[in-house]
Amino acid sequence: MACVEYEFQFVVDGVGVDDEAVVDVVHEEFDGLLTRHRDRHLLDVSETGANTIDAAHRIVVRLRRALPGLRLLRIDPDLVGVSDIAERTGRTRQNVQQWVNGERRAGKERFPAPEGVAGRSPVWRWGDVNAWLAGIGEGDGVHVPTREEALQIDYLLPHWRRTLDDGLPLVNVVAAAEHDEYGEGRGAVRKLLEGTLAVPGVLESISAFPRLEQQRLTVVCAVLTDRLDSVVSRIGHDETWAVLAFVGPNGELHLQPLGTREAQGTVPLSRLGLGPDATVGDLLLVQTNGPDRPVAPMTPVGLD
Fold this sequence. Notes:
Elements: E1 4-13, H1 20-30, E2 33-37, E3 40-49, H2 52-66, E4 71-75, E5 79-80, H3 82-89, H4 93-101, E6 116-118, E7 121-125, H5 126-135, H6 147-165, E8 170-175, H7 183-197, H8 202-207, E9 216-221, H9 228-232, E10 241-247, E11 253-259, E12 267-268, H10 280-289, E13 301-302
Parallel strand pairs: 8-9, 9-10, 11-13, 12-13
Antiparallel strand pairs: 1-3, 1-4, 2-3, 5-7, 6-7, 10-11
């Protein structure tokens, strides 16, 4: 799964710049920066992920493990005006104002709407501006959350915090593949999965599946025609375990532990009579009919 590095600036509490131990952890383990601006503490960190939400998911887990007392409140909007944009892009204020007015780059997507007004001047989220600049070949190559992504992360942060407080892992749900004709089917699996995870005790049961990262669990939603190697390719670069979610012929949800070649304690596909081109449906047939050495639905399965 291709990953990109994203930069985040969180508004935080529970820690302070006067705590040298915390500052050292932020710097040494995250190559980050903890600063204080008036009455707010800001934490600048970066993380890789398949997308912005995935990267945020990962950094939240890592920060919780390293700094249990840290509370991530929200994404700082990093508001910028025309002068700030000019300084960050190396352009003149006149150039930036032309972008804002739509007088340059005709035919391209319009400049982002301002987030609000500071004094009498409009201000924008830098994430929105930088994403727009990237679209015209003027970006700085740094990936930061847009307004929509930041609002989604802000919404998820309290839920993630409560889940970790309860001693449960954060579940990262991904699709086995994208941009093909089976997207609707995988979406149906995801919807059924989300309803199932809301049932008391289900997440606790899934948490018992073998994995190295105890505070994060990836669930891959698939259809019966998806190949198992494509499912495994959706496991994060720093993970060896995931849970395969798919719907059987009678509409029932199946949850199957699945590992990469590096995962320990798995039953190799070759022992099940399955080859490298095996699909999710092939695995279901093995579970249903059983080869010479049958595998129970909860037995961890791994690629050879």
